[in-house]
Amino acid sequence: MPLVRGAIYAVIGFVIGAGISLGITSITGEDSTEPLIVLGYVFAVIGWLMGVGMWRTWGRGWFGKPTENNPGGGWERYIRFNTDHKVIGIQYVVIFVVVFLLAGLLAMLIRVELADAGQNVMTSTNFNTTMSLHGIMMIAVAVAIMMGGFANYVLPLIIGAEDVAFPRVNALSFWVVPPVVVLLLLSPLFGGFDTGWTAYPPLATQTPIGGLLFELAFLTFGISSILGGLNFIATIITQRAPGMTWGRLPIFAWAVLAASVISLTATQWVAYGMLMIIFERIFNMVFFSPPGGNALLYEHVFWFYSHPAVYIMILPAFGAELEIISHFARKPLFAYRWVVRAFGLIVFLSFLVWAHHLFTSGMGDELHGPFMVLTELISIPTGIVFLSALGTLWRSKIRLKVPLLFAVGVVFNFTIGGLTGIFLADVATDIALQDTYFVVAHFHYTIMGGEIFGAFAAGYYWFPKITGRMYNETLGRIHFALMFIFFNITFLAMFIPGTVGMNRRIAEYPPEFEFMNLVTTIASIGLGLAFVPWVYNMLNSWIRGPKAPDNPWDAKTLEWQTSSPPPLENFEEMPTVTGDAYGYGDESVVHSVFGRRKGSAHPPVPAEGD
Amino acid sequence: MTAGAIWVLLTIIAELSFTSLNIFGDAASEQGEFIDDAFVLLMLLAIPILTFVITMIGYVFFKFRAKGDELEDSAPTRTHTKWVGFWLIWTTVLCLVVIVHPGYTGLLEIRQTSAEEPDLTVNVTGRRWQWMYEYEGRGVQLLMKDDTLVLPNHSLIRFNITAEDQDVIHSFWIPAFRMKIDAVPGLTTYMDVNTTEIGHFNDDVNFRVQCAELCGKDHSLMFTRVEVVEPAEFEQWITNR
Q1: Residue B103: which of A290, A295, A372 has the nearest Cβ?
Q2: What is the Cα–Cα distance from A469 to A548, expressed in whole angstroms?
Q3: Distance CA A464, CA A2 (A)
Q4: Among partner residues B169, B179, B189, which is closest to A203 by beta-carbon distance?
Q5: Contact B61 A398 (CB under 8 A)
Q6: Chain B CB within 8 Å of residue A195 CB
């Protein structure tokens, strides 16, 4: 059992690391608890990775010994180190669906506490830990569900590759995730942390051990994200099928490429930030905590990642949304080339807007103007995505299936999310709205209403491909209706207390804001219940749903031109791409032809038609 | 045409219902009045965009649904240069308008250190979980959590804000003035406010100093009551302290 072996090796690793740390601190005479945890954890992760199969699949090769390539078949593939991108994609989706449901339960707890003004079910310390855990767990879901989950499964298929460029790195990027989840779930038992997911020092350096566990988790998760981004970039550049020119690349692949650039380059900053906080804690170094340190420095480092990070979340969702709209509207994706340009511009601008989170931080006033301008400029490329979505739907022949409903849900929700973003990019209104419930409502509209709706669109769309079975359409529609309605009531109602003076991250608030909070709480319970038909539908359909055909949607992209689910290495015969993927209503455009044998020389690549 | 008419109608209804609502009470400072006006302006600009998207979604679902099991494809329109150009132009123009006003006009209004001497300077220190105040040159300090921060009306008040050295980041926010700025250990920030309305916490809960940056256990309860009184009454109060 690789999981059991991994756990045992992790314990052994922890004992070794903790022992080394104890040895050192007994000489230096410093406080031993936190260094012991950090070093023990580092060794535990190494032990865990080796135990779950990295040693057999990869590590032995470092010493010139033969490695085993993906031993074990059947369901056991999913609980060991496996390099098949389809296995890894499912591993990511399953673990993050579990995290999503747990963090959703935490949200329910928060809403119960906020149903009225006073203290109900939690002490304020417990409230802070609950709120912080909800935040970081949902951030992890948002970063990983599209990129780690659906992009991992679909990207190699959609570009006609046998796997990603670095399959073992891909498996590594998944297997550091379980330690992240374990640390986060353990943190409430060690005093929790009351910093929110933003972890601003000096507060973050003063939390109980639970805070240290959170910081280690965030750092580890960053490593996973960096490796994932690196892998997708290399995959898209080197593994495309013959004929898959840049002008024919499906929009989902473009979106993953754009998000990967951010994932690779920006994530390192938050990893540094966490590392520096950990060093402040265990080595008494001074970076952020006065005297000597600069608290604002952390806010810059943190948001230099965490603003671009929202595009790691939303870009793949935009990609899936546009992909689905084109295939279900039976119409070529409108203004495809402009969307690609828009994605590029969004990536570029995403690195230049971080300080709009700092308008009230006390940073120099001369920075307000430039960051306001750059932030508001992002509305122009984002507008192109809407143009493309609406332009594709116009005069189309819409097949109103669940994936399309969710994709159009993204268009609606993100309109509200995007428009309310302008209020937060404008310095004047931001000074009033910063740190209020307006902000909370805004980012739930963009991330949940945008990305998570997009992830559900992707989930329903690719469900037949991934599982080989069809989901139940009626249950899917019920799920969409409930989720859409209750999501909108919950978060529309949340804008109001924010606008009239209720700040965020508080367990108790003035009774004047009680009514709107009660509305939000009641609606949020409906939102929570909306996931019941979904969970039932997914589980039931996966086990005993009707067998899915290879191409139930009659879509042209490559992942639908192989069996459901695809075989190991994805295609029986390898595809050659001869046209773009959106040639609906145009007989002259053929996306792909099959017949090339695996490993055979590439046939002549037809010239790009458009 | 139909879609256009629906859009115009929806927009008019939405704009009228928004302007007829007074969602927030009156701001009690010049800066706050500017911010409220900016908020309303941005809403008025945002509403037509939202109604456009709603109209489009509703219309295409109604008009362009595949009927029954019809499996035909649509006509293969790939792009439309004029529409793309039109779209780029209107989004860019709107973006530039918003950058100028309320963007840059707001910067001048809100965060401009005015040349004029403030009528009153209050030095503010945050620590977990209370605020402390010193009326500069007036010999008055408020050190208790239950004290009320009394301020004169029709005055330019400058707050110099910091947090204690071994403490954490807080944020000094007075919702009635719509203004906030962080209180950072090791750094002094400022906030200028021109008061315009009298008011008291007991009548309007927005007359309070609320910590707006998460600072640990009692963050929710880190607030001070605020009272804005006429200048004469304020002088009276200072003398009595």
Answers
A1: A372
A2: 4
A3: 29
A4: B169
A5: yes
A6: yes
Token pair 């417990």 is found at: A126
Class of domain A83-544: mainly alpha
Tell me: do B93 and B151 sit in the same domain.
no
For chain B positions 82-101, those within 8 Å of chain A (CB to CB) are 83-84, 87-88, 91-92, 95, 98-99
CA gap A54, A42 in Å, rounded: 16
CB distance from B215 to chain A under 8 Å? yes
Q: Is A508 on the interface with B (CB under 8 A)?
A: yes
Higher pLDDT: B201 or B23? It is: B201
B128 and B149 fall within a common domain: yes
Each residue's pLDDT tens digit, B38-51:
999 999 999 999 99
Longest Cα separation, chain A: 77
Strands B223-229 and B208-211, bridge-based pairing: antiparallel
Sign of CA dihedral A19, A20, A21, A22: positive
B142 close contact with A: CB closer than 8 A? no
Q: What is the pLDDT of residues A270-295, one digit of tens each?
A: 999 999 999 999 998 999 998 889 99
Size of interface A-B (CB pairs under 8 A): 266
Separation CA A504–CA A254 (nearest Å): 36
Q: What is the largest CA-CA distance in chain B?
A: 85
Residue A503 near chain B (CB below 8 Å):
yes
End-to-end CA distance of chain B: 70
B129 and B180 share one domain: yes
Domain that residue B185 falls in: 120-240
Quote ipTM for the complex: 0.96
| Residue B189 counted as domain residue | yes
- Count of alpha carbons within 13 angstroms of residue B30, beta-carbon side: 16
Burial of A238 (0-12, 13-18, 19+ CB in 10 A): exposed
* pLDDT, tens digit (0-9, with 9 covering 90-100), for A569-594: 899 999 999 999 999 998 889 999 99
Q: A-chain residues within 8 Å CB-CB of B181?
A: 360, 362, 431
pLDDT at A106 over 60: yes
* CA dist B156 → A5, A360, B117, B119, B197 (Å): 69, 20, 8, 5, 13
Q: How distant is the alpha carbon of residue A545 from its chain centre? A: 28
- B19 with B95, same domain: the answer is yes
Dig out the tokens for A22 from the structure.
């104890």
What is the number of residues in chain A? 610
Token code pair at residue A128: 């802070």
Per domain, the residue ranges of chain A are 1-82, 83-544
For residue A432, give the amino acid letter.
A
Cα gap A511→A507, rounded to integer Å: 12
B179 and B227 co-located in one domain: yes
- List chain B residues with CB under 8 Å of A394: 56, 60, 64
Contact B35 A428 (CB under 8 A): yes
Query: Tokens 């910093």 correspond to what residue?
Result: A195
| R_g over Cα of chain A | 24
CA distance B133 to B122: 7
A477: Cβ contacts below 8 Å, ≥ 6 apart: A402, A405
C-alpha distance from A187 to closest chain B C-alpha (Å): 16
